[in-house]
Write a sequence for this structure.
């Protein structure tokens, strides 16, 4: 099974981000900030920490902000330089990838995640690669993709990041059908005998769901090239990976860490709180602020005020 090094990552950023309207009317979802960095910046840092050298963005309409983020901004840099604001200068550009190591290609129509990944086929060529969905954030000791790359060095093949979810939620995820007869040395790895996209709870083969981190072999492009539509009429990456099972090994990797679904409002706001609390410079102030929010005040919990709910006199 191929264990060629993982040098390239695909960031599919062609989605419309309708769950964040009106915020995403004129700005890409991936540029929404968690504390002080856009979602896509965290994805980029995670890829780099895993040893990735080439960064491929599959964009769509209205995504220029992402290209600009990964470029110099001369006017601002010259202003900061004149004012001798070294720290701010570092934040604008010290982390930029080397010239030529960033590519952008366009997914002309949002036909699904599988289609977005397929759009990167010529930029990937004939080697294994990683995929990171920027709207899935994982807070962990070792960055999630790095954990997966370490596991990949042991077993090769294809690896998807997985986590247990409540059975009632299987309809929102790709679910792993676990090959219980297969033994793996790394207890975080499970071998898959199938993957099912968005099954109903009573039809789901397990509650192990796929989240937005993948290590894939290039043969996936042949399958995606058939352009077969799956759940919700989209070209599904999960279906293509499932088709590879039998010809190639596919593993689920139970990563260490906490995942935040930043594609939705609640997960995104929760990630902001989690990352703020994880920062030494603002942790204490953040906690103080949280304690000041009336709806979080436990002394008032019996009288918790839901948005739009009215209370009797004295509470308004
Ligand atoms: P989502 O299902 O979250 O879709 O895509 P979305 O359009 O971004 O968001 P909503 O539902 O309208 O709010 C999951 C991931 O797959 C990418 C998205 O950018 C996101 O990272 N994606 C999805 C594409 O790149 N292209 C597609 O055609 C679909």
């Amino acid at each position: 099974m191929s264990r060629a090094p993982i040098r390239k990552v695909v960031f599919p950023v062609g989605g419309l981000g309708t769950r964040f309207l009106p915020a995403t009317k004129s700005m890409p979802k991936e540029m929404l900030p968690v504390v002080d960095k856009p979602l896509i910046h965290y994805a980029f840092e995670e890829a780099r920490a895993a040893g990735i050298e080439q960064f491929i963005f599959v964009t769509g309409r209205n995504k220029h902000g992402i290209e600009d983020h990964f470029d110099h901004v001369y006017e601002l840099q010259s202003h900061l330089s004149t004012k001798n604001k070294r720290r701010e200068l570092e934040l604008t550009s010290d982390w930029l990838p080397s010239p030529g190591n960033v590519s952008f290609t366009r997914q002309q129509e949002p036909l699904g995640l599988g289609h977005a990944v397929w759009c990167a086929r010529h930029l990937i060529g004939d080697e294994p690669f990683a995929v990171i969905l920027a709207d899935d954030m994982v807070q962990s000791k070792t960055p999630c993709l790095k954990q997966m790359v370490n596991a990949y060095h042991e077993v090769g093949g294809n690896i998807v990041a997985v986590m247990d979810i409540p059975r009632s939620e299987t309809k929102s995820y790709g679910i792993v059908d676990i090959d219980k007869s297969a033994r793996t040395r790394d207890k975080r790895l499970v071998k898959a005998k199938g993957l099912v996209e968005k099954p109903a709870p009573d039809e789901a083969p397990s509650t192990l769901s796929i989240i937005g981190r993948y290590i894939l072999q290039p043969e996936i492009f042949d399958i995606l090239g058939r352009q077969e539509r799956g759940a919700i009429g989209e070209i599904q990456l999960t279906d293509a990976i499932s088709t590879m099972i039998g010809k190639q090994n596919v593993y689920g990797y139970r990563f260490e860490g906490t995942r935040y679904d930043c594609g939705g409002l609640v997960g995104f706001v929760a990630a902001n709180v989690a990352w703020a609390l994880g920062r030494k410079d603002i942790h204490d102030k953040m906690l103080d602020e949280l304690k000041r929010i009336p709806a979080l005040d436990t002394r008032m919990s019996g009288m918790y005020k839901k948005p739009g709910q009215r209370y009797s006199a004295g509470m308004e």
User: Anything to note?
Assistant: The domain at 8-277 is CATH 3.90.550.10 (Spore Coat Polysaccharide Biosynthesis Protein SpsA; Chain A). The first strand starts at residue 8 and ends at 12. The pocket of uridine 5'-triphosphate is lined by residues 12-19, 29, 58, 107, 110-113, 115-116, 133-135, 263 (CB under 6 Å). The CA atoms of residues 275 and 281 lie 11 Å apart.
